[in-house]
Write a structure and sequence with these properties.
With 601 residues, the chain is an alpha/beta fold. Helix content is 63%, strand content 10%. The two termini are 61 Å apart.
Length: 601
Amino acid sequence: MDQKSINLKTQTALVRILKYAIPHKVAAVCALIGLAIVAASETAIPALLKPLLDKGFTGNLDHALWRVPAFLVGLAFIRGIAQFGSNYALSHITNSVLLKLREQMFNRLLQAPADIYQSRSAASLINAVVFEVNAVLQVITSIAMNLVRDSLTVLGLMLYLFYLNWRLTLLIMIIFPILGLMVTIINKRLRRLHKVHQDMTNELSYVVEETVGGYKVVKLHGGQTYEKNRFQEIANKLRRYSMKIAVAGGLNQPITQFVASIALSGVLLVALFQSSMAETTVGGFVAFVTALILIISPLKHLADINQPLQRGVAAAEMIFKLMDQPIEEDQARRQDAIKLARAQGEIQFSGVGFTYLNQAYEEDPAQAQSREALKEVSLTIRAGEVVAFVGPSGSGKSTLVNLLPRFFNPSAGQILLDGIDIQTIELKDLRRQMAFVSQDVVLFNDTIAANVAYGATSAAEIDRQKVLQALQAANLGSLIQELPQGIDSEIGDNGNRLSGGQRQRLAIARAIYKDAPILILDEATSALDSESERQVQEALETLMKGRTTLVIAHRLSTIENANRIVVLDHGRVVEQGSHQELISSNGLYASLHRLQFSQAS
């Protein structure tokens, strides 16, 4: 990417950030007024010193000079009030912007298509929403506190310096182009370093996430040393880049001080020459030097603005890239969508194909590599029919089922629900027709009732009687009786206070509570013991009556009673029929069945 493109992206990110502050105009105006008063007070200090030194130490008592100490006290009081007011107003703006950004980012995540969760790690998404957004606020703070206040201070002091001695002021003006050149060089390096630092931070977060999530495997297999070495390697890389950023950013201040000291030395030499020619007074010289010293601090702040600014812009680009992700269903499409109250449950796959694209597609379509997961799948499932999908690993079973609730969209063909193309049905109505139970159970750190009735916006919306019935049907009635708080008991992070079988049955209870006309079961009884499996299987069979049920099967013994078994291989339907028909045909299903039962014996 060339420098012109980088500058354009930086400007775009800055404009978008500042737009979030527009609704807070009153607070912004108050902050600017306060910053302007603070800046003006800097110029007033040397202005008060000049008459005090020129007229106050001549041996004659000038009663007007007694006002100078009073002015200094009043100036400090006004400055303090202005500084507090500006800081408060800026805090109001930044915290309001922070809330807005986080809300929009989280809402976009909720509406983003499923492929974003596959192309990016959970750690990077969490890092963007929780941590990176704070760096964006540094942009607003840096611009307001440093760029506005310190620029006004520098401007005021420079005008006063010209007023006092334009020759000396022209001399110190030499430092500005030198500083500008140094800042430009450092700015380019900081931008590159911050981008790498951001990627390394995401990678480190991902290692921690994997280790914490898989702690049982880590401990059981003695992987502590491996994980520690992996963490240390990335942490050390992150430390090195942090030091590089510190070095690059830290050069601003000493360079500014060094150049300023050269200018100050030149000023002293010229001032001594002017004094010998009676072209300046003691008060004028002290006021000039005081103003010059006062201007150094805001100049250093302006030089130091690059580091937080570039860090914030780098974070903003990542955040806005996330916020610019397309949503599953935009407003225009929603307005044209077909409403669907409750489906009958007939499903038709017509020439369906699907191709996975790798992550390079987002960055550079020319480098994209594809993998065809489904090829010309045509299949009709009658309403109320129980259809099981089997096949070797990678045959396309899960992909086919994931197309039905539009987690992904087909690359070819179409899927019909009750004769209606699912692409034309309003997304929330489509998904309301389906309940899903996976072998990878997902539960939330909430009460049992909230997990069973998940989707209710508040506790008042939960039908507690229906929750109890669903739990009873899923063979969890005895558990509820044992818990002191019953269905109001907290289950912990992903249900870690429950056993594996209880977690699985709680997920089944959630599907029972939803009472959808279409059920999708991904080996829903795999985590249960024999007795619980028998009881839950009976509940599921009762629940499946009159409902269209799609079963992704891994254990073939669980699907022998299915109305129809569909066998997939390399993304194609190669066989379908009842269990007995497929065994008799001696094809792929029969081969898988023999292999599985020979291993079991």
